């Protein structure tokens, strides 16, 4: 890759970050009179740890990376936005991303006034690394990959991803929001070989904590320092830090949920295949399936009428006629199948 400093926006390199009271003093004290906090209403009166060290230690013990390689934010969405703010010069740089994929990369690009170049996946949603690289130029700072990909559900081929990592001089983001549902190992293991790699993971899916908002970015310590410099000083509140710390003790519960959801996914797929107007179910390594049906808009509206909400993706590139269906609880899945079976009768 190119030298990291040549990829970073000049104003960010030169930035002197806000120094908060808790940055200057670490440890226990008899009286904390440094941050203009209210002495009452313990423990909520105190500002949270700006770098979330305790939580990071607990996470990195499981992920087997040092804490210096981890950024924690208000969902993965915060890390996505930081990628733009740290590396991409507005109205000058561009990023390249696969399409279709998660919508936030493009929204963040638009907010930061960065050109967003979409490279279509193949018709079966596989990645062509050469085609992706051909869309880059001297102003391409970042490539966005997502594996397993949303909304298609498939894992990107490791050799194609590797080809991107080995041949692109900028930053490569691999979003692994659904990695817990997939048989593949995380790209986190490859961090030491690729100083330009940023891996995103989240507590929003397998951990069942979407409402709590905690996202993770794994990267070289140099990149993490840049993220820390630019983020809001207290970006993860006390309630989130404490609650996630507590949940990390019950990883077996998460594993049991994943196991159940994977079983339910297979059951859902086999039931869906029995429905005549279901044309294709794309292979999924995530907790959802992309399903091609005859007249997606009509099926979508019918489900809404019956008070079941799925995601209509029919207007998304390569997803014509497709609904994205999240694997729910056994009861929710039974209800979905029951209602879908009555759809033809309603015509
Ligand atoms: C759901 C999802 C996320 C999660 O974002 P959070 O801000 O952590 O909730 C990230 N990336 C992809 C591809 C997703 O589908």
From TrEMBL:
Record-linked Pfam families: Aminotran_1_2 (PF00155)
Keyword presence, Amino-acid biosynthesis: yes
EC main group: transferase
Superkingdom, taxonomy of origin: Bacteria
Single GO BP term: L-histidine biosynthetic process
Catalytic activity: L-histidinol phosphate + 2-oxoglutarate = 3-(imidazol-4-yl)-2-oxopropyl phosphate + L-glutamate
EC number(s) from the headed UniProt entry: 2.6.1.9
InterPro entries registered for this protein in UniProt: Aminotrans_II_pyridoxalP_BS, Aminotransferase_I/II_large, HisP_aminotrans, PyrdxlP-dep_Trfase, PyrdxlP-dep_Trfase_major, PyrdxlP-dep_Trfase_small
Biological pathway: Lipid metabolism; Amino-acid biosynthesis; L-histidine biosynthesis; L-histidine from 5-phospho-alpha-D-ribose 1-diphosphate: step 7/9
Keywords from the UniProt entry: Amino-acid biosynthesis, Aminotransferase, Histidine biosynthesis, Pyridoxal phosphate, Transferase
PROSITE patterns documented for this protein: AA_TRANSFER_CLASS_2
Cofactor field: pyridoxal 5'-phosphate
Residue span, Aminotransferase class I/classII large domain: 42-338
Residue numbers of N6-(pyridoxal phosphate)lysine PTMs: 205
GO molecular function: histidinol-phosphate transaminase activity; pyridoxal phosphate binding
PANTHER family: HISTIDINOL-PHOSPHATE AMINOTRANSFERASE, HISTIDINOL-PHOSPHATE AMINOTRANSFERASE-RELATED
Similarity comment: Belongs to the class-II pyridoxal-phosphate-dependent aminotransferase family. Histidinol-phosphate aminotransferase subfamily.
Oligomer status and interactors: Homodimer.
Protein's recorded name: Histidinol-phosphate aminotransferase
Lineage of the organism: Bacteria, Pseudomonadati, Bacteroidota, Bacteroidia, Bacteroidales
């Amino acid at each position: 890759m190119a030298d990291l400093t040549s990829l970073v926006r000049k104003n960010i390199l030169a930035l002197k970050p806000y120094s908060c009271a808790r940055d200057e003093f670490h440890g226990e004290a008899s009286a904390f009179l440094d941050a203009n906090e209210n002495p009452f209403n313990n423990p909520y009166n105190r500002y949270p740890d700006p770098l979330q060290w305790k939580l990071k230690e607990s996470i990195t013990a499981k992920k087997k990376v040092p804490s210096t390689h981890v950024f924690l934010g208000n969902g993965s969405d915060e890390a996505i936005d930081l990628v733009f703010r740290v590396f991409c010069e507005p109205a000058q740089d561009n990023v390249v991303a696969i399409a279709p994929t998660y919508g936030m990369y493009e929204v963040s690009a638009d907010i930061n006034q960065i050109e967003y170049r979409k490279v279509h996946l193949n018709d079966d949603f596989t990645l062509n690394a050469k085609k992706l690289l051909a869309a880059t130029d001297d102003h391409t700072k970042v490539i966005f990959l997502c594996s397993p990909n949303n909304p298609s559900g498939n894992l990107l081929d490791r050799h194609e991803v590797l080809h991107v990592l080995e041949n692109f001089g900028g930053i490569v983001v691999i979003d692994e929001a659904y990695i817990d549902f997939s048989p593949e190992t995380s790209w986190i293991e490859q961090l030491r070989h690729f100083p330009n790699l940023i891996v995103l993971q989240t507590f929003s899916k397998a951990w069942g904590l979407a409402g709590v908002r905690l996202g993770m970015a794994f990267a070289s310590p140099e990149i993490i320092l840049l993220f820390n410099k630019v983020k809001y000083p207290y970006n993860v509140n006390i309630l989130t830090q404490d609650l996630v710390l507590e949940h990390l003790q019950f990883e077996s519960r998460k594993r049991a949920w994943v196991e159940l959801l994977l079983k339910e996914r297979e059951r859902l797929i086999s039931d869906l295949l029995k429905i005549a107007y279901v044309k294709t179910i794309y292979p999924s390594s995530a907790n959802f399936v992309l399903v091609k049906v005859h007249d997606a808009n009509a099926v979508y509206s019918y489900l809404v009428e019956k008070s079941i909400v799925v995601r209509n993706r029919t207007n998304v590139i390569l997803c014509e006629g497709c609904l994205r269906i999240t694997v729910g609880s056994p009861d929710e899945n039974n209800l979905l199948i029951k209602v879908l079976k009555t759809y033809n009768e309603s015509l």
